[in-house]
Amino acid sequence: MAKLTIxxxxxxxxxxxxxxxxxxxxxxxxxxxxxHKIGIATVYRGLAxxxxxxxxxxxxxxxxxxxxRAVKKHHDHMVCTKCGSIEEFANDTIExxxxxxxxxxxxxxxxxxxxxxxxxxxxxxxx
Amino acid sequence: MAKLTIxxxxxxxxxxxxxxxxxxxxxxxxxxxxxHKIGIATVYRGLAxxxxxxxxxxxxxxxxxxxxRAVKKHHDHMVCTKCGSIEEFANDTIExxxxxxxxxxxxxxxxxxxxxxxxxxxxxxxx
DNA sequence: GTGCGAACGATAACCATTATCGCTATCAAT
DNA sequence: ATTGATAGCGATAATGGTTATCGTTCGCAC
Lengths: 127, 127
Ligand SMILES: [Mn+2]
Ligand SMILES: [Mn+2]
Ligand SMILES: [Zn+2]
Ligand SMILES: [Zn+2]
Description:
2 copies of one chain form a homodimer.
Chain A lengths: L5 H11 L7 H10 L6 H13 L3 E5 L4 E5 L6 E5 L5 E4 L2 H13 L3 E12 L1 H6 L1
Parallel strand pairs in A: 3-5
Antiparallel strand pairs in A: 1-2, 3-4
The structure holds manganese (II) ion (2 copies) and zinc ion (2 copies).
Chain A binds a DNA duplex (30 and 30 nucleotides) through α3.
């Protein structure tokens, strides 16, 4: 359990008070705006520490990693390739089948990442 | 349909003759070894062009993109977090459920990416 | 042969992330 | 309270995969 410093608490509070999927830079900028002096390296280190301790979760997108509250139950993501918005979904059958597939191959699964790409409802209408 | 230059044919041949998941650098190095003079930028451009034309497929991993033959039927990947090896699997039910989920959310799915992380059979035994 | 457009190769730029390093905050032991 | 060890901070340099730039070259129509 790494130390929960002021800086890390501030990061955690911001994430927990929102429903977004933040990247490190967005978090740093928002914290600066709110008057919290914090270095970008500290944000990266803090996020890594918070994730290790299970206090935040992350989604690894193609270009960057995004962080979100850990208090939500497990879900995967749909990313709109037009507007970049992220929606969440959960499907127990998919989750179960992943474990089955892994087991069949003698693979000890420790995690997974499922991302659907496409056009969200908002963007799809106007195309 | 972009032009299939000598360089791109060489890249394509190498990928098609193998069963690996190559990154750009590995391809460039292997081509150089085999006596084909080719610039790294050309490899990147060539891979992008080949993928656009459906002649190769790619897997976006956390750090880098890897390319493989397009002649195989669709599958997803299991990545060993110890040795980095990549195994393939396919599950029609998972594929179908993804479409169902997307449709439920009014999401027009154009693609997806499913990666299982964990310990492969080889690495799992010795741990 | 000349001209044009696409692609090439070398290399600089980009950008998210990580490493470095001097400094500071924390805290236990004296 | 002072010391010393340790962890974290902040500024900034470095890293590494990828993309942009630019002058040159290739393929091909005229
Ligand atoms: Mn989420
Ligand atoms: Mn594959
Ligand atoms: Zn959208
Ligand atoms: Zn392995």
